[in-house]
Amino acid sequence: MSASSLMALIAFLALNMTAAASGALFRPGAWHRWLKKPSWNPPNWLFAPAWSVLYLMIAISGWRIFEARGWDAAPELFLYVVSLCLNAGWSGLFFGLKRPGLAFIELLALWASIALMIVAFWPIDQLAAQLLIPYICWVTFAGALNFAIWRLNEGRTGAPTGA
After folding, report:
1. Given a cut of 60, is residue 123 above it in pLDDT?
2. Domain boundaries in the chain?
3. Is the distance from CB of 121 to CB of 132 less than 8 angstroms?
4. Distance between CA atoms of 72 and 96, rounded to whole angstroms?
5. Residue pair 113/86 in contact by the 8 Å Cβ criterion
6. DSSP string, 43-99
């Protein structure tokens, strides 16, 4: 691997770590523990390792597109950055603002951006597109979970305000 290729990979990893930082800024806390959750809600410990693997796969996917086309892939890379921004925004809406309904709507936009990335990446690098399939599957599951939590807690009052 050349030095420039390694630097590009590090840049993509840094972009993904920046998006992941929103999860550290907006933590579940007391409000999240208070929420009614569906019986199929995974344990909290599962989310960090799952997202760590997904962010690594997302970074490699973007890096492969950049390696294949360089800045000629600007439209695809713009979509990539938009998707990371939507990804980062979800934690602030759900945990920060405590707005699961708004977070669900934002998650629909995230899902669409991932689907568009898969379609846009496929003709450039099929492996890059395939690396995003676990991501869209996880976001599909997260969307169902977000929706269920939103509906189960609609109209509930008296939630703890502390984190």
Report:
1. yes
2. 3-35+45-153
3. yes
4. 37
5. yes
6. PGGGHHHHHHHHHHHHHHHHHHHHHHHGGGGHHHHHHHHHHHHHHHHHHIIIIIS--
Dist CA 79 CA 8 (whole Å): 17
Its pTM stands at: 0.91
Rounded to whole angstroms, how far apart are CA atoms 129 and 40? 29
User: How far apart are the C-alpha atoms of 128 and 126, rounded to whole Å?
Assistant: 5
Closest alpha carbon to 23 in 103, 102, 112, 79? 103
- Residue 155 predicted with pLDDT over 90: no
Number of H helices and E strands in the chain, helices first, is 7, 0
From the options 3.40.190.10, 2.60.120.260, 1.20.1260.100, 2.60.40.10, give the CATH code of 3-35+45-153.
Answer: 1.20.1260.100
CB proximity list for 49: less than 8 A, separation 6 or greater: none
